Amino acid sequence: MQTITKPTITVEAEIHAPVEKVWNNWTNTQAVTKWNSASPDWHTPTAEHDLTPGGKFKYHMEAKDQSMGFDYEGVFDVVTPNKYLESTIADGRKVKTSFIAKGKETHISTVFEAEDTHSIEMQEDGWQAILNNFKSYVESLNDRIELHFEIEINAPVRDVYTTMIDPEQYGVWTGAFCPTSRFEGSWEKGSKILFIGDDDKGEKGGMVASIADNIPGKFISILYEGLLKGDEEITSGEEIDAWKGAYENYTFEEKNGGTLLSIDTVGIKELADFFSQAWPVALNKLKEICEHK
After folding, report:
1. Alpha-carbon dihedral of residues 71, 189, 268, 84, nearest 10 degrees?
2. Nearest residue to 114 (alpha-carbon basis) of 100, 129, 124, 103
3. Is the whole-model pTM more than 0.85?
4. Domains in the chain and their CATH numbers?
5. Which partner from 76, 201, 236, 293 sits 20 to 30 angstroms from 48, CA to CA?
């Protein structure tokens, strides 16, 4: 029996951003809604997925005037963070995307099997336009500061993961950022969560965020969406623009029977010195808690 080989198309881009930032914005569903379009008159109002091998994805793409739309959906086959993503679209075609780190830049390449309805040239132009839009979106975030921290904790990965997000322990280890630090909400993927602290006058403030991803014992991604002032959640306006694209990623890896916890965070440059001092203190406190339970 002869196997019919579908023609493949390759689109590529050089992005002026480190691979961690590129991967995060490629796989974060809320970021997807900001760049996944081939032209200004189209957008992706909703995106959802389970970023694990065998996990499903569904991105609804439509014209902004709602005259037409469709669901781009399928299943992830291979997920290798910061390196490679392979999926099968609902019609059976394969899509393979590679992320090649080049210092502070990233080469991204997508190879996909062509469909039979539209010309090869039209398909290539459309996919390249989406990739170019992605490049523009990610590079627009370059006024952010990127920081990386890591610590080895002599405790099992599962214990570190559960302790870090435990309501009673969270405020203890994050006290380095604010003595009254706490959270309200859920750590489940897709949930809204508020990170709260009181100023020296006792007035409540903090950040409005969502859990972009949460793979228990492996990975948590927090996407910041606005500011909390008292009970008011501010998610739009010039004051919020500075926080657009800010995130924190937590990666948990087993190492020598313990845990290597890595933090990759992107935020506003004005807070770089504060975070550079506070994060090591916070992580050492978390280490102390985990190792003395």
Report:
1. -60
2. 124
3. no
4. 8-139 (3.30.530.20), 145-291 (3.30.530.20)
5. 236
